[in-house]
Amino acid sequence: MNQSVGIIVVFLMGQLLTGVCLAGAASKEEGKTFYSSVPTAYMDDPRRAEWQKPEKVVDHLLIKQGDIIADIGAGTGFFTMLFAQRVGKNGMVYAVDVDENMVQYVEKRAKKEGLNNVKTILATPNEPLLPKSSMDVIFICDTYLFFENREQYLARLRDSLKNDGHLAIVSFNMKAEIPGAPPSHKMIPRERTIQEAEKAGFALEAEYFFLPYQDFLVFGKR
What is the reported pLDDT for 179? Predict the structure, then answer.
């Protein structure tokens, strides 16, 4: 295995473990052990931008100055910090994670980067602990497949959205063949994601196809 592939593998393992923790499939102690042994720099490897295309993703969410965003399964804050820059000083980004190490990391990172509009939430596996009817955008990236009770969790997220708010789900698709991607039998097909979101009170409003390894779905409230 060459060095670049090795770094991608370690990075994706970190992202996927964050999702496992979010779904309650890994204990807090296991999370601490893992994160203490893997440098967070690997989790934010700049080469992720080549396939994740974060700027383009955020552009398609039409985020405005003053918006309130929730980043579910924020991890090291890869998207959180970008959201915070886009919403400006009058906006707010809630970085939600169940791993205390990640929550602390994001707090330190936001302070270091001078971003005073980031609020962390140490959530529980089944409750994001977001304020009701307050979010303009709720964003889930690569952690949806780890939710144990997805419809119920989505219903709670719906309660936290404003009436004109949007839920964005970015998840590995069935064609993802990069090292570290979950096996196909673990992935959630886009059709099932749409069905579960509809049962939770959402309607698909947009779908984008520029991500090579991921589905990108945007929902509104019904």
Answer: 59
